[in-house]
Amino acid sequence: MQVEEIAQLLVAPTKGILAADESTGTMAKRLAAVGVASTKDTRREYREMIFSIPGIEQFISGVILFEETLRSNSGQVLLDKGILLGIKVDQGINSEEVTEGLTGLKERLEEYKKYGAVFAKWRAVVTIGAEDSLAENAIRLAEYARICQEAGIVPIVEPEVLMDGDHTLADCDRVTEKTLRTVFAKLSQKNINLKGMLLKPNMVLSGKDSTHKTKANKEAEATINCFKKVVPKTLAGIVFLSGGLSPDEATERLRLINQNKDLTWPMSFSFGRALKQEALQAWSGTAENKAAAQAVFLQRAQQVSLARQGK
């Protein structure tokens, strides 16, 4: 398949992307929170519990995997369901808030393709009030996207303006617009085919610690208006991250965004915790809880699918 076709499949009208790409360190924290030790076996058991859910393919078009998961062939059950495999290719953020991972990326992508990966993800972060790393991160996002497309891999470009802090909705709006303008300028310089690329951004939100909280409908409106100002119309689609939002908060804002009848692009999801958090708590490492945890996941996935349709 060509990158444009893959991108369209990932933003199919009732579906979105599951982010299951936590690093080993992050996975240890997630499992510890439900009393489970993080080992290669427990990480695989948890992820395969999710991947094997009957009917998951109704709501999930693709899954972003961590390298350990892709190499373990845990993604085969997803391929059997017609779900596309993606891979997290960045190698974390350094002390200057710049994302690493370009060295050897071309060679790694060739390896990942052998396991069935057809799309990739690279995350960069922007902290409101400390935006010095933005320019360099934008350059690296664009170079990553170029390497991916040359390898026939759809790049998901993820510039995340963090929710952390006491900033207002207006602050987030300003920095998100600045971030997207910078990123798309660098993508243009690299001649990235936007029809074969997805954007994974934050929604425009008040800060977690803000004393000026904004209603969800206002945040949805601000998000749409911001994106219409700066995102090129030719982009294949937008798959929002859930960031620090709860499952209900992320689902509701996605629903409100998609109730707008004048959207320029497919506005879908690439949620991690907002899709898996409840199922992880229900499972808690106990085999007897597997069926109940799978039911919890499927219910949330259906809700997010409906929200992606504005329902």
- Cα-atom Rg, whole angstroms? 18 Å
Strand numbers in spatial order across the main sheet: 1-2-3-4-5-6-7-8
Mean pLDDT: 96
Beta percentage is 5-15%
Largest sheet: 8 strands, parallel, barrel
Terminal-residue CA separation: 31 Å
**CATH architectural arrangement:** Alpha-Beta Barrel
Q: Approximately how much helix is present in the residues?
A: 40-55%
**Fourth-level CATH superfamily:** Aldolase class I
Ranges where pLDDT stays below 50 over 5 or more residues in a row are none
* CATH structural fold name: TIM Barrel
Order of helices and strands: HEHHEHHEHEHEHEHEHEHH
Number of helices: 12
The top level CATH class name: Alpha Beta
Q: Tell me, what's the shape?
A: globular
- Per DSSP E runs of 2 or more residues, the count of β-strands stands at 8
How does the helix and strand content classify structurally?
A: alpha/beta
Describe the structure using short key phrases.
single chain, 311 residues, alpha/beta, TIM Barrel, 14% strand
